[in-house]
Amino acid sequence: MRKLSYFFILLSTFILNKLNATETVVPGVSGITFDDSVPSVTITDDFTVDGMTISPQGLTLTYASDVFKLFGAATVKLGTDEITVSFGTAGSPGLQVTGGSLDYVSMGLTADFELKSMSFSPNGLTFEWDSTSGNFEMYGAATVSFDSETVTVGLGDATTPGI
Fold first, then answer.
1. Residue 12, helix vs strand vs coil
2. Which residue of 57, 62, 96, 147 has the smallest Cβ count within 10 Å?
3. What is the pLDDT of residue 106?
4. How far is CA 94 from the centre of its chain?
5. Quick one: pLDDT at residue 139?
6. CA 148/CA 40 separation, integer angstroms
7. How far is CA 160 from the centre of its chain?
């Protein structure tokens, strides 16, 4: 929880004060770096929120002209269950907020995972929401196994999503 608190406090300070350093490491906290050339904040160390352990992989938040963007990936673990989610790349971020309003979310499930006794194997499984259209879309494929039963579901592609 300490890292998350530092993150939000220092992010606010970073944005308000526009740090002049090209790269600033948070004192006493590893895994959080501010890069003013972008400007961005990258989280690389694990942290815990309400019993969930979040393991970021290049999880980066950028801010410019009142627009926040999030990209990278993270594995979220709760008990014995874990799931890996991708939020796109710097060129195509998975989350954007403009002026405090959510513009869009695009996240993909990128690794096999289990929830309770069900196994999921996603293949390009992506969830998207866009404020312009107000539509939620899901596309890709997944194989779900429970006991001795296995079902594979195809949900179209980005051009013609299944949901």
1. helix
2. 147
3. 92
4. 7
5. 92
6. 47
7. 24
